[in-house]
Design goal:
The chain has 19 helices and 20 strands. It is α+β, with helices and mostly antiparallel strands and 695 residues long. The protein has helices at 2-20, 22-28, 35-61, 87-120, 125-128, 133-151, 185-188, 199-212, 239-272, 274-300, 302-312, 324-337, 339-361, 370-378, 459-471, 573-577, 583-586, 655-673, 675-679; strands at residues 68-69, 85-86, 407-408, 415-416, 427-429, 435-437, 447-449, 455-457, 474-477, 482-485, 505-508, 512-519, 522-526, 536-541, 544-552, 558-568, 605-611, 618-625, 631-640, 644-654. The model is unreliable at 64-85, 298-330, 364-497, 590-602 and 690-695 (pLDDT under 50). The radius of gyration is 45 Å and the shape is flat. It folds into three domains: 2-271, no CATH class; 410-487, no CATH class; 505-686, Transcriptional Co-activator pc4, Chain A, CATH 2.30.31.10. The strands form seven sheets. It has a four-stranded antiparallel beta sheet with strand order 5-6-7-8, with no helix packed on it. It has a four-stranded antiparallel beta sheet with strand order 11-12-15-16, with helices on one face. A four-stranded antiparallel beta sheet has the order 17-18-19-20. It comes from Stylonychia lemnae (Ciliate). Residues 372-415, 432-451, 476-485 have a biased composition (Low complexity). Keywords: Membrane, Transmembrane, Transmembrane helix. One of its GO terms (biological process) is regulation of DNA-templated transcription.
């Protein structure tokens, strides 16, 4: 019930909030059935209905339900009721309406964002032309264009002077700056264009500019239309901000409606069982009342029954005076009610009788179990000759059974059950005459009997056996103790392991080729402590990533003799991952080529350095962002004698190729530190240190 009240509150709150949101007012009227008005009215109505059903549900729980119907299909007419309220039908209808509103809101937000994105990228315009929401996209674009060309800083709406230093490089020959207007808010009304504006759209654009400092739909306009334009020119377009607001606001509305619909469905599902609750409760009450009446009647007439038995005979219970007829009837009903109890008691008695017969039949052939074996040992009966040879006990965790289906295996001296394919727990004798219990593969004990018939049970030995089976330990067995010796997981052949060489990622251009490959960390077996006999895997050398730069001749042959390699270690990985090719596009930065004369700026540069051991030369790699077509330049060069730059090699790559390199570097990071061996020990045997590592 609390969930229903919460859904009602959220429904009415979001309905009122949607009515006040400018994006809903401007966007909803371009959708079928005016989605903004539809969500407002339905949200209020559904919230009121849920509040009403909350009180109805309280009446259902408190059993005050003279005119409440719970089943959504069958109409049940209660006794003494004249009004019918179909609680289940109402909740089911509300659930359907909530889900429809939620799906429509989510679809409107998602498709609205896609329409703005495709319109500004000039894609699939014929596809979107058949949708009513596409008119909203064109309406916003036309509004921006009309405000900029027909109203902003024209003779109808002259503007005030602007900051010339901020607008340096801009030319506004067709604009009028002889007035005092800093935006178009005062100029919208009171002219011949006042009737053509959609004021819901204008209010939304004003709010959008205030929150995101943008103007223009697909391309950024020079002037801010609704705020002070004199201080700084506009540099951002608004289509990405509009798409984000549509997806966020309408998505939140859709999720609220879907959540409310889910809670209402749960309420309907729980109320569905109330259709049959009254009938079952009534039958249970009648059954208890009848049983209570029978018990009271039996107790009241017990003395009368005793008198009739003495006067008229044992079997003649209907003769004489008194309430004999009622007594017979009560006894019959009581007997029918207790049939189940008597039947259960008979079954238990039959099982006891069968067990007693089985015990009597087997007196001449006793069964030795764990319990009687323990009792015999405690009573001082240590003579094992009283047992047959095949039933000689060997451990407290075993239980022998005398079964003619047991067959003896001559080769292994173990016993097999004829009804099972697995060997049962038996014993075998060794040449020294001692008896040993068969090893329990389920993790039990391994028990040894010496010649003096003294029982030994080594718990640690049992744990070692189970651990041996899990981790593939080999063991050597003596007469008195068990010694374990660890076997390596992978035995080398001739002291050398096979190395693994992954295929590099290659980028080829007309005269240059870049190859990226990973060199994983290597492992070796080493005894860490002198007292320990076990060897451990360690990683003496971390991995690295190689960037190979090579020239290509006119015959498209790679000149390996000119190859230069830069080594990237784990400490430099974060620098290449920090590069974001989509940073400007995520911010919505778009320039207007007609109004802005921007100066070329140097792109972002990231430097990497590496120095070999016992070498004075410093190897460097530079990643530079180019200004055109989202290109990046990878440059290799060496610094000799701290000043001279030699062996310079450069290659241009695209933003997509840079993303591929970043993904490969990200997935190679665990192998650089040897974490792949920690996560999967089988990897250690593939990367043993057997050769000198070269760069």
């Amino acid at each position: 019930m609390c969930c229903i009240t919460g859904c009602a509150s959220f429904s009415m709150y979001w309905a009122i909030k949607a009515k006040k949101m400018n994006i809903w007012l401007s966007y909803g009227k371009f959708l079928p059935e005016n989605l903004s008005d539809l969500t407002f009215y339905l949200g209020i109505v559904l919230g009121c209905l849920l509040t009403f059903l909350f009180f109805i549900g309280i009446l259902l729980v408190t059993r005050i339900k003279h005119c409440i119907i719970s089943c959504p299909v069958i109409i049940i007419i209660c006794q003494g009721a004249h009004d019918l309220i179909q609680f289940g039908v109402c909740t089911f209808i509300i659930f359907i309406v909530y889900y429809m509103l939620g799906i429509l809101s989510l679809a409107a937000g998602f498709y609205g964002k896609e329409a703005f994105t495709d319109y500004c990228n000039n894609r699939d315009l014929d596809y979107w032309s058949g949708f009513a929401l596409f008119d909203y996209v064109k309406e916003i674009d036309n509004t921006y264009l009309e405000l900029n060309k027909q109203l902003m800083c024209t003779d109808i709406c002259p503007c005030s002077k602007y900051n010339e230093r901020a607008y340096q490089g801009y030319n506004f020959t067709a604009k009028n700056f002889s007035g005092s207007n800093k935006n178009v808010i005062k100029c919208i009304e009171g002219n011949q264009y006042s009737d053509k504006w959609d004021y819901d759209v204008l209010n939304y654009l004003q709010e959008l500019e205030k929150n995101y400092k943008c103007s223009g739909l697909c391309s950024a306009q020079t002037f801010l239309m609704f705020t002070d334009f004199t201080e700084i020119p506009n540099k951002a377009s608004c289509y990405s901000s509009i798409g984000g607001e549509l997806e966020r606001d309408m998505g939140n509305m859709g999720y609220v409606f879907l959540s409310c619909g889910t809670f209402v469905f749960c309420a309907w599902f729980c109320a569905f069982g109330l259709c049959f609750r009254d009938k079952q409760a009534k039958e249970l009450r009648e059954h208890i009342r009848a049983k209570k009446y029978i018990m009271e009647g039996t107790m009241d007439n017990s003395e009368i029954g005793g008198l009739q038995s003495h006067q008229d005979g044992v079997n003649d219970v209907t003769k004489g005076g008194g309430d004999d007829e009622n007594l017979v009837q009560n006894q019959t009903i009581d007997q029918s009610l207790n049939n189940v109890i008597h039947s259960k008691a008979d079954k238990k008695s039959n099982r006891k009788t069968q067990r007693q017969k089985a015990f009597n039949n087997n007196n001449n052939n006793p069964v030795y179990t764990k319990k009687n074996q323990y009792n015999n040992e405690n009573s001082g009966n240590q003579n094992s000759s009283q047992y047959p040879k095949q039933f000689k006990p060997y451990g407290q965790n075993q239980q022998y059974k005398q079964n003619p289906n047991y067959q003896k295996n001559n080769s292994s001296q173990s016993y097999f059950d004829g009804d099972s394919t697995s060997p049962s727990y038996g014993f075998k004798e060794n040449e020294s005459g001692s008896q040993q219990g068969n090893f329990n593969n389920t993790g039990g004990f391994k028990n040894n009997y010496q010649k003096n018939n003294q029982y030994q049970s080594n718990y640690q030995e049992g744990n070692a056996n189970s651990y041996q089976q899990k981790n593939q330990y080999s063991y050597q067995q003596n007469n008195d103790q068990v010694q374990y010796q660890r076997a390596p997981s992978r035995k080398p052949r001739g002291g050398q392991f096979k190395m693994f060489f992954p295929k590099p990622f290659t980028i080829s251009r007309t005269n240059m080729i870049l190859s990226v490959e990973v060199k994983p960390a290597v492992f070796e077996l080493k005894q860490i402590r002198a007292s320990s006999q076990n060897q451990s895997y360690i990683s003496p050398k971390n991995g690295y990533i190689c960037f190979h730069f090579s020239h290509i001749d006119d015959q498209e042959h790679v000149q390996n003799e000119t190859r230069k390699t830069f080594v990237m270690t784990m400490g430099q990985v974060r620098q290449i991952l920090d590069i974001d090719p989509d940073s400007k596009y995520k911010k919505g930065y778009v320039t207007d080529a007609t109004d802005i004369e921007s100066e070329e700026k140097d792109g972002e540069e990231v430097f990497f350095s590496f120095q070999k051991q016992n070498s004075q030369n410093i190897l460097n790699m530079k990643v530079k962002e180019m200004e055109s077509n989202r290109q990046y330049q990878f440059t290799y060069f060496e610094v000799v004698n701290n000043s001279d730059i030699q062996h310079t090699m450069s290659i241009d790559i695209t933003a997509g190729e840079l993303k591929v390199i970043q993904i490969l570097v990200r997935y190679a990071m665990p192998s650089l530190l040897g974490w792949n061996g920690a996560l999967d020990p089988k990897v250690c045997g593939l990367f043993f240190k057997n050769t000198q590592l070269d760069y």
